[in-house]
Each structure stands twice: as C-alpha cells, then as structure tokens.
Design goal:
There is one protein chain. 52% of the residues lie in helices and 15% in strands. It is of the alpha/beta class. The termini are far apart. Bound molecules: S-adenosylmethionine. The site of S-adenosylmethionine has 18 residues, from helix 11 and strand 4.
C-alpha cells in the first residue's frame, strides 16, 4: 500500500471540484462585477440575479480557495489573483476560463464517445457555428502567447530567417512577441476570419500591422501565401488526424524553398508507446472537441515530416515541444 499513490489518485479524480466553481463564477460574471468595485453578498446577488443560498455556497467555495477576500463586509478579488481574474487586466485568464466552460461540457461526453465514437456523439458543425464558443477559444489561445513565443525563441534563433508564415497563428500573440524582439522579421499569419479579427485589433493596438500581415484562409483546403523561408505550425496539427496533418506538412514543404525551415511546435511525446502525462490528457481534449484531432509522438512526426519532403534537424523538449526540420 502506498499512501502517496492513494493521494495521487484522489487528487487526479477530484480536480473538477475546484475547477467547476471557479469556471462557473467566471461564467456568471462574478469576477468582473467585484473587479469593478467590491460588493456585499446582497449587492452581488442582485447584480447577478442569483438565488441567495446557492450564491452563498459559491462565495464560500471561492473564499475557501482564496480567490476572493473580505474587505470589511464587501467581497473583493484576492490581490494575488486579481490580475488574472479581472477581465479588464492585460494579464486576464478569464478568456481561458470561458473556454474551459465549453470544454467541461464536451469532456462530459467522454463515456459515450468511447463507446460510440466522437463522430456519432458530437455535433461538430453546431460547435463550430457557435460564435460565443469561437470567441472564447480565440481569446483563450492568447493566454499563453508570450510564454509560447519565449519558448519558441529558445528553441530557434529567428535571426536565421527573414519571412515567417505562421499557419494557424491565431490572434498573433506569438507573432507580436517574436517580431518585437526581431525587428527585421516579416511575418504572415494564415488563419480563419474569427481569429484574424482579434489579431487585427491587437496588432493595430501594438503598432505592428506593417510587419505582420493577416491572410484569411483554410490551411487544409486553400492555397498558402508564397515567399517565406520558414513555416511555423504552432499548436495546429493536434486538431487534425493523420490525413490532414500529412496534407498540411506537404503544403508546408511546397510553400518553402530548399533549405527552408519547418518549426513545428506542439505537445509531442518523445516516446511512441507512452505519451507524456500532458500529451495523453490533451489527446482527450482533441477527441471530444475535434473530428480527428490527436497528439503525435516524435517518432511518428519524424516519419511524417520526412515523407513530406523535410530533413529532421532537431527536437527541443521544453514546456511544449518543438521539432525543427529543413526542406530537402
Ligand atoms: C490552438 S490555436 C494555436 C494558436 C497559435 N498558433 C499558438 O500556438 O498559440 C490553433 C489556431 O489554428 C487555427 N486553425 C485551425 N485549423 C485551421 C485551418 N484549417 N486553417 C487555418 N487556421 C486554422 C485556429 O483558428 C487557431 O487560431
């Protein structure tokens, strides 16, 4: 008997007890209300049109977790968490909490999906057509933008390239960070309209629209813009099965000159038989939210990039992982 293993298992299975109250509070707009000005429970109840006893239990949970605190008889965001829970803060994580709200619902379908297959259980068209869900996703994807860019710059020296095509570059958080550091770089983001409207707004606010171009398109179906010496695929291929990922890799090869760089950043497990803990769990997220998405292992990706026309160069194992290859 191992007390440690017992504790580990209980922690693994009990995480949702903390997650759901916090995500629900965000969903209700509770954090935004008290971020503007501390409120008494009665003021909050009126503002949220909530039921008194239930709201009190939710507030107790948030107080117990230390996310909110008493200031006399008013409730306020705990100073430690305020930069992340105030939606108006530049460091807000509230977009990610909104996204998690949608994920909880898809994760709850796992039992049915394992029995019947995602295609028969999930209405992917309806999911894609939900603008609130898409907005939450696009905002959530910005959350780690700065850290992702730092990781990427540790993995690859961007002084070696001049023009980067960032396929699925989203709202441009990575683009902005890398271009701020490397002033000679030109950058193109290829993404869908929803992500690009957020990108255009953020890039205009940062004064980066002259060096970062946004091109609307579908990476699997449309022609990719030409004239780049590096293609970045950051957290894109995990949304696709082998067939589409293969198509994306071949398009990357076709878009690059000989010697051009492929920078493939994703949750890549070094081993093929056992994924890393995060990659294994992330694979569930792709199962319940995409038609064929999955995580890939390094040996698989090496074979795939090789077959698409690249020569594998390096693998960098950081918070997430980056595979670097060159066009043959
Ligand atoms: C998980 S986000 C990653 C964003 C960013 N690259 C990063 O690493 O933070 C995936 C992005 O790929 C975009 N995307 C997914 N499939 C795409 C496709 N077929 N064509 C263009 N963009 C796509 C999504 O709209 C989203 O912005």
């Amino acid at each position: 008997m191992s007390a440690k293993a017992k504790r580990e298992l209980l922690e693994m299975t009990g995480g949702f007890w903390r997650a759901i109250p916090v995500i629900t509070a965000q969903r209700l707009g509770l954090f935004a209300r008290i971020a503007k000005a501390p409120k008494t429970p009665a003021q909050l109840r009126r503002a949220l049109a909530a039921e008194e006893r239930a709201l009190r239990r939710l507030l107790d949970a948030l107080l117990g977790l230390g996310l909110i605190v008493w200031e006399d008889d008013h409730l306020a965001l705990a100073p430690k968490f305020a930069p992340y829970l105030d939606p108006a803060s530049p460091e807000a994580l509230t977009g990610m909490l909104d996204h998690q709200w949608h994920l909880i619902h898809s994760w709850m379908r796992l039992e049915r999906i394992v029995l019947d297959g995602a295609e028969r259980v999930v209405d992917f068209e309806a999911m894609r057509a939900d603008p609130e869900r898409e907005r939450a996703f696009n905002h959530a994807m910005r959350t780690r933008g700065r850290e992702s860019a730092q990781e990427l710059m540790r993995a690859f020296d961007f002084r070696k390239v001049r023009r980067v095509l960032d396929v699925g570059g989203g709202s441009g958080a990575i683009a902005a960070e890398v271009c701020r550091r490397h002033r000679r770089l030109e950058w193109t983001i290829l993404d869908r309209p929803g992500a690009l409207s957020l990108a255009r707004r953020k890039l205009a606010a940062d004064g980066l629209t002259d060096r970062i171009r946004c091109v609307r398109g579908d990476a699997v179906k449309d022609v990719w813009p030409e004239g780049h010496d590096a293609v970045l695929l950051s957290n894109l291929i995990h949304a696709y099965g082998e067939g589409d990922t293969d198509r994306i890799l071949r398009r990357a090869a076709a878009a690059l000159p000989r010697g051009g760089r492929l920078l493939l950043r994703d949750f890549i497990s070094p081993r093929e038989d056992v994924p890393t803990p995060f990659a294994g769990i992330f694979g569930i997220n792709m199962l319940v939210n995409t038609e064929r998405g999955r995580v890939y292992s390094l040996p698989e990706l090496k074979r795939m990039v090789q077959a698409a026309g690249f020569r594998f160069e390096r693998f960098v194992d950081d918070q997430s992982q980056t595979l670097i290859a060159r066009r043959r």
